[in-house]
Amino acid sequence: MLPLISGSAIAATLLILIHFFGLRLRQKLDFSHIQFLTALISKTRSVRRINNYLLLLLRLVFVASALGAFLLFLFQTRNNSAVSPDKISVVVDTSWSMQSPSVEKERSKAETANDAARDILREVSNTASEREISQGTEAVNVPEGQTTFTSSQSLVDDLGNTSRSTTTYLLSDFQRATFSPEILKSLPKEQSITFVSLGNEEVPNIYIDSVWLEQPILLPNSLAGISVRLAGSLQGESSQVKVSASEGEQLLGATQVLLDPAQKAIAHFKIPLNSNTEKQITFSVEDPATAFDNQYFVILPKPSSVHIKVNRSQGSNDPIIQAYKAEPAFNFSQSANNNQGLWILNIPANGGSSALATGIKSWVNEGGSVLLIPDAKALQSTVSFLANLGLQGVSEESKEIGTKPLKQPDMSDAFFRQIFEKEVKNMKMPEAKPVLRWQSSFHTILKFTDNAPFLSTFRVGNGNVHLFAAPITSASAIVAHPLFVPVLYQLALSTNASKIVLSHQPNNGSIIVPLEKEVASKQPYALSVAGQTFIPDQRVRQGQLFLTLPKDLGRPGFYNVLQEGKTIGSIALNIPRVESKLEAYTVEELKEILADHGGNIQVLAPKERVSLQKQLQKETSGSSLWKYCLILCFLCLVVEAIILSTKKSGSLI
């Protein structure tokens, strides 16, 4: 501003000097008679009169413009002083997506945000009485490379807790996957907030979307089949992606998959299980352009087997026992100490004892599963026994109902997903004579052709109760069917499938860790990594540990779970997959979403080679009309100088 005023003052001084003390440019003309000048003198007087009126108008405009420039400048200065905030808060988004590349080459969004935060504080230090950079709700220094698992909702909640007299600058990439329109609209309308959008739609990102086991149980001295699903963000063309698996420094395998835009690809690995210990496996994807989420950590639990407990009177000819004994993944025991397995028993014809019912309830409450098989002659006592277990709505089937065929299974059901490699059409199904019937259940696995259930699952306590509608003996037609053994295996394997947790993605900064055996202790659980120990906010309920991760715990990897200083297990923390989806809102889209907030929320995107503070001043100050008034003053002086110069150069007197 000062150079502009100084330049205008110097120019005005020069023009005034020319106006009052300009040199008369005289020219000598030789004429034979003065009569030839009469017409010229008359014309010169008319032009001089017009020039005088024009000079009067220009000088009036000059005076009005100069006065207007002074008043507008004074008004804007007072206005800016009146709206200057008493407190300025600069909030830098520290989520994982901020580690992706920014518009500036070879710099991350977090680095750009840190520089912009310093720029804001440096420029406003003369007008703000109190300054701070906030990360969440705590006043800290500019976060250098620090990343947290904090959600966008908690970030917006922290902004809502800021006082109304505070002007807040929020620097983020505003991902579509994390900042929903509802979250953005929940911002307080009375508070002054400036969004600085750091989104970059030019650099694609390839990441690991999820990892899962191809079988629900891990057996000792075998190969664990693992599927790794890849996805892309902002991907414009197909690319070959290299994926590798390693344990520590040892490479376990590598493969390549073709990833098409807006699609997902699956890579398959076989990991050897040659010991009775858990394995910490790291899957890596080759994506040098966006490297912050190239690794995915999983923990393979110890190889184990499924516990089978049998109370059947069929003896060695029992087809169910024969089917389970053919697979080494199942072991038999009559002990009731281990409730994490499958208990197979016939429904007692006399209704059973109260001790048996209590034992079954305890089994399922501990997470075990029960497979109930009715007798050929179901009585009312059978129905009463099932009702006592919590299976409501079960009744005796009519004696007039004979055998009827089973319906072909629904291969889209997740229960049958891994039974057959490909869909079998026109499968010939066996027949069975039902003795029980029911209307509803948690999940019906097999049905008769009239849609009456044949095998269903009921949720009881923390476990499952599987119920057949017909007895299963060596003479049953279903025993010889190819579907019989796979269905039995799935019933047993599903008992342990829910217990295997390969990794955790702390969405909203929270995770749930299953506990094998809850030990009563006043000492809290802790997480440790690389010599550091963290004690998160926590609570234990129904054999699960609910943890809210502290903000200074933001690194993915393997963590040990401690209780009373002893390691009781380990977990793998990964970057939430939503952080890898880099599609962001544009400035125009953010303005449209926040249109209801009026002028309290402003949105801008940093420009290369332009100070962010200058952009902020332009947005907040608006157009400076006093500058246009000065320009008009300058133009008036220029035109006046031209008129006076023309007048003096052509003067004859």
Automatic annotation (TrEMBL):
Name listed for the protein in its UniProt record: Aerotolerance regulator N-terminal domain-containing protein
Aerotolerance regulator N-terminal domain ranges (all copies): 9-67
Keywords attached to this entry: Membrane, Transmembrane, Transmembrane helix
Organism of this sequence: Rufibacter hautae
Pfam families for the chain: BatA
Presence of keyword Cell membrane: no
Protein origin, superkingdom: Bacteria
InterPro entries: Aerotolerance_reg_N (IPR024163), Double_TM_dom (IPR011933)
Annotated TM spans: 6-25, 53-75
Keyword Metal-binding: no
